[in-house]
Amino acid sequence: MRRSTLGTLNIGNQNRQIVRERKTSLGTRPSIGGRRPSSSGRASLANPRSSRPSSQYGRENCAQMKDTRPLSDRGYQQKMIRYLMEFLTDFNYPHQISMRILSAPSMKEFCNIFQFLYKYIKGDTQKTTALESKPADEIPKIFKMLGYPFSISKSNLQSVGSPHAWPIILGALCWLIELIRLGLSVGHDIEGHVMFPEDNYGAGVEYQDDGPQPEDKFFFSYLDKGYAAFMAGQELDELGEYDNEFVQNIRSRNAAMLDGMEDLVKENMVLEEELNALESDSSRLQKLSERKTTLISDREKFINYVGDLGKHKKQLEDVNNQLTEELQGLKMEEEAAMQENSMLQNTLNNQELSAADVERMKHEKRELQKTVEQLEKNRDYFDQQIWEKEMQYAKNHEESEKHIREYNEMARKLKLVPPTAENAKGFDFEMHFNPHSLRPDQGALTDFKGTIKPALLRLRQQISEKSRAVKSQVVTEEETCDQISDMVADKQEEVAALEMKLQTLDKDLEWKKEIMAKEYQKSSGTAQGLEECVQQMRAKVLKCEEAEEQQKEELKVLKLRAEGNKVKLESEKEEYSTFILKACQVIKEHKILIQVNVNRF
Question: Which chain regions cross the lipid bilayer (predicted)?
């Protein structure tokens, strides 16, 4: 049964701690007849991957490797494309896929393929927002996290379908597929791959002393069953059957070793007797030593000779294979030539040809062969020209993208991009460049001439009209300020007249007070009326003073407002003038650049 995901693979360039000392009893190989592991040495049930670092994907501080794969070779690229398409087809890729799409995919198609592959590693079917919004930033980080030994630049991802960038990214995708296939194959039996090595007893396989041993699997099963029985309620003295089963498993595994030990003991005794007999005869021992030296020398010579014969045999086999392939090809060519000869013979037998016709046909054949050779040369020449033009085309596209990015950055500084910007007024001034478009009306130049340039001209006209309106408003404000100044002067004259009148009234009041003081006893009613009149006059004077202060404050506020408006209008006028000059300069430079690029093609 195939697993759908691998879970989260922890195989990147991360800090891993290699556990050299196994503190659990799983790593201690129990002796056959000796002591049992103590209860303090319980087997840890934690994830064993923490003590088994992966050595396949490099180390943390390794130097940058050089990619030795022939990524620029067309045949190798087709092989990688078929490998990628086979994987996507086998695993039910949900989007449309074909060899043509995989030859030069768009950014959207590449993101769909990468997310489909990445879900087998991450194990999360939901799409990542950061991966969707900024794939050129996130994808290199993911490859670096997974331990991809080669670098992937951001510029390659921005022009993913170009001839110089796609082979690099295609090689990274094939590496990712190999990683996924490895994870899927390991995931079928993770316990056998991670915890315990394969039991190759008798095959000459050696295991590390500080690593897991094949018999640890028996001990792990013994602990598992015993612990489960203990948790189920059995007592410790009732677990003897598990001890017997464990001992029986160890004995059955080592039965052949025990039998072999008895044979080795007997053979050792025989060899010791022969050794004693040989040691007693010193002259024979010396002869045998010399013979041994001679045999060792002959053995080395024979080994070298056998090695040379093996190399020679391999060379002969390679030559034989090549000759066999050539012979098969020649046989096929012979059969084809014989068939063609028979067909031509039948045609010749059925036709009445003269010697002149035969000579003419031979001459035409030679001419046609020359024409075919010339056409093949022309085809190779045109293929080379097409390749050079494609590279030049890709370079020009990169330059065009660079200038369009500079234009968009300048428009963003001038608050023209995005459409919600202050000066955009809902219009999209951003230039969009689609190098893979086959329609001329979708190019950047047509878009600029048809939409952006008229919009910029309208914006310049609006700014000019607004500037004239602001100037007119400034003139109006200045006239209003002059009128207010005249009104203030008139009010000041009125206030001075009222002050003179007030002084006169004060003198009259004093005089009338004196008269009224003398005549108070006689006409108290008249005095009360005069007092009321005086109060009214004082109230009028106070009102005049308050009106004068209010008019002074209003005059001061109007002056400050007029000065502020004047400064603001001057600043806006200078900003609009600078903006218009910069925009015109950028448009002029971009127009010249586009015309130069158009003339090149």
Answer: none
In this prediction, what percent of the chain has a pLDDT beyond 90? 5
Q: How far is CA 143 from CA 13, 136, 172, 186, in A?
A: 10, 12, 8, 21
Contact present, 121 and 9 (Cβ < 8 Å): yes
**C-alpha distance across the termini of the chain, in Å:** 56
Q: Residue 199 corresponds to which amino acid?
A: D
Spatial separation of the C-alpha atoms in residues 523 and 538, rounded to whole Å: 23
Cα separation values, 491 from 167, 487, 496, 497, 541, Å: 87, 6, 9, 10, 14
Sign of CA dihedral 75, 80, 83, 89: negative
Give the C-alpha separation, 354 to 342, whole Å: 19
Q: 172 and 152 in contact (C-beta within 8 Å)? A: yes
Report the distance separating Cα 186 and Cα 339, nearest Å. 54
Per DSSP, helices labelled H in 414-436 are: none
Q: Report pLDDT digits (tens) over 385-436.
A: 888 888 888 888 788 888 888 888 888 888 877 778 777 777 777 777 666 5
Query: Cis bond leading into 37, ω under 30°?
Result: no
pLDDT of residue 400: 81
* CA contacts within 13 A on the Cβ side of 349: 6
Position 373, amino acid:
E
Please say whether the beta carbons of 178 and 88 come within 8 A: no
Q: Is the dihedral of CA 422, 425, 426, 432 positive or negative?
A: negative
Q: How many CA atoms lie within 13 A of 166 on its CB side?
A: 21
Q: Six-digit token pair at 576?
A: 């609009």
Q: Which residue has the tokens 């065009």?
A: 400
Threshold 0.85, pTM exceeds: no
Helices (H) and strands (E) in the chain, counts: 16, 0
Residues in the chain: 601
C-alpha 244/C-alpha 198 separation (Å) is 24
DSSP 47-74: -GGGGS---SS--TTPPPPP--S-TT-H
Nearest 5 degrees, angle CA 311-CA 312-CA 313? 90
The tokens for 572 are 């806006």
For every residue of 451-493, DSSP letters joined together read IIHHHHHHHHHHHHHHHHHHHHHHHHHHHHHHHHHHHHHHHHH
Whether the Cβ atoms of residue 169 and residue 152 lie closer than 8 Å to each other: yes
Q: How far apart are CA 321 and CA 313, in angstroms?
A: 12
Diameter over CA atoms, the chain:
180
